[in-house]
């Protein structure tokens, strides 16, 4: 039962290269392995979650992996859409926004 949709953008800094695709791919692997439902977009990944603890756990795993890859600084942008009265689903939000 997803009570929030978290939009997450992770930007590794201090990598020595303008390309960040290998770091983004690693973050996507971590999200996928979490078992949470997600949808990757051009700039953000939307993830269905039930609690802030799930978000904290995920961020910890992402940070640990990027540090292991030699990243010296990480910029994370998070947007949270939280509902207390009903479930939230990525597909429903997209369908409503597109008028479907």
Task: Present the secondary structure layout.
Blueprint: E1 4-13, H1 21-33, E2 38-40, E3 45-49, H2 52-68, E4 73-82, H3 90-97
Antiparallel strand pairs: 1-3, 1-4, 2-3
Helix pairs in contact: 1-2
Number of strands: 4
Structural class based on helices, strands and sheet pairing: alpha+beta
Distance between the termini: 23 Å
Name the beta content range: 25-35%
CATH domain class name: Alpha Beta
Q: How many DSSP helices?
A: 3
Total domain count: 1
The best one-word shape is globular
Name the strands of the widest sheet in spatial order. 2-3-1-4
Supply Rg: 14 Å
Spans where pLDDT lies below 50 across 5 or more residues: none
Explained architecture:
By secondary structure, the chain is α+β, with helices and mostly antiparallel strands. It has one domain (4-97): Alpha-Beta Plaits (2-Layer Sandwich). The chain is built from 3 helices and 4 strands. The chain has helices spanning 21-33, 52-68, 90-97; strands spanning 4-13, 38-40, 45-49, 73-82. It has a 4-stranded antiparallel beta sheet. A hairpin with a 4-residue loop joins strand 2 (38-40) and strand 3 (45-49). Helix 1 crosses helix 2. The model has no long low-confidence stretch (mean pLDDT 94).
What's the quick description here?
The protein has three helices and four strands, in the order E-H-E-E-H-E-H. The chain has helices at 21-33, 52-68, 90-97; strands spanning 4-13, 38-40, 45-49, 73-82.
List keywords for this structure.
UPF0045_domain, four-stranded antiparallel sheet, alpha+beta, Thiamine_BP, about 100 residues, Thiamine-binding protein domain-containing protein, MTH1187/YkoF-like, Alpha-Beta Plaits, globular
């Amino acid at each position: 039962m997803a009570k929030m949709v978290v939009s997450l953008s992770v930007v590794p800094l201090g990598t020595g290269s303008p390309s960040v695709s290998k770091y983004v791919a690693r973050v996507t692997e971590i999200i996928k392995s979490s078992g949470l439902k997600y949808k990757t977009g051009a700039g953000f990944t939307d993830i269905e979650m039930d609690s802030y603890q799930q978000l904290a756990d995920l961020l910890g795993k992402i940070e640990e992996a990027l540090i292991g890859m030699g990243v010296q600084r990480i910029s994370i942008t998070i947007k949270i859409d939280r509902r207390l009265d009903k479930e939230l689903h990525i597909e429903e939000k997209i369908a409503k926004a597109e008028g479907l």
